[in-house]
Amino acid sequence: MVTLEQFRYRPTHATRPPSCFDFHRAEPGMVAIFGDNGSGKSTLAQLMAGWYPDFLPGDIEGKGILLGNPVGQLSLVEQSPTIQLVQQSPYLQLSGCTFSVEEEVAFGPENLCLGEAEILRRIDAALTLTDCHPLRYRHPGTLSGGETQRVVIASALAMMPRLLILDEAFSRLTAQATGQLLDRLAHWAQEHGSLIVLFERHHSPFITCCQQAWQLRDGALFPLC
Ligand SMILES: Nc1ncnc2c1ncn2[C@@H]1O[C@H](COP(=O)(O)OP(=O)(O)OP(=O)(O)O)[C@@H](O)[C@H]1O
What we know:
Elements: E1 2-11, E2 20-25, E3 29-35, H1 41-48, E4 58-66, E5 69-70, H2 76-79, E6 83-86, H3 101-111, H4 116-129, H5 145-157, E7 163-167, H6 175-192, E8 195-200, E9 212-217, E10 220-223
Parallel strand pairs: 3-8, 3-9, 6-7, 7-8
Antiparallel strand pairs: 1-2, 1-4, 4-5, 9-10
The structure holds adenosine-5'-triphosphate (ATP).
The site of adenosine-5'-triphosphate (ATP) has 14 residues, from strand 1 and helix 1.
Domain ABC transporter: 2-224
GO cellular component, one term: ATP-binding cassette (ABC) transporter complex
Keywords: ATP-binding, Nucleotide-binding, Transport
């Protein structure tokens, strides 16, 4: 589903040599990439989410394939039905143009021009998985950080992506909420034939839910399991 072979990304005006990535995952499931602050996690997450070149200007080298398409071939809009990225700051990812959590989660599927019944089915499933049903009629602007983070994850799930990238997407959740959500996401990935890639600083509790893991260090990925 994702292959990077001797893949290098050199940002415009880079101040350090480019990292060189080797990563391969052909099966659905949940995997993780760990790295310290400044190791390049978010940049790699954005590359895997198809942000090059629209939001990641620069040069690439090597082989990079996302869901069968070479990195940089499709625009972000073309990739949004199949690839979703959730980042660390949830407030920056709300659409800003909806008046309820339900509308917020419906925003993506509505843009896919799906029928009403399918949109409602997706909203229900996403709200259930993320425990967001009690928030359904709340204005997104009134939510806490943790609630907003769960709504942003629900919005990504409602797109039913084949590749879901979660970049420190649990930072505002309690340990208990994180554990429960990880279990559910691991099941969801298997059930839908999707790949979830977690980007995190600490191994625990993430590594135990993942089938494969890598450490991002000194500009390269080292397999952990
Ligand atoms: N492939 C690369 N080549 C050159 N510079 C890079 C590359 N990847 C990342 N950088 C630069 O390194 C810095 C840290 O990158 P990034 O934000 O991706 O790391 P991070 O691990 O997500 O950090 P944090 O955990 O602190 O959020 C940024 O200034 C980024 O532009």
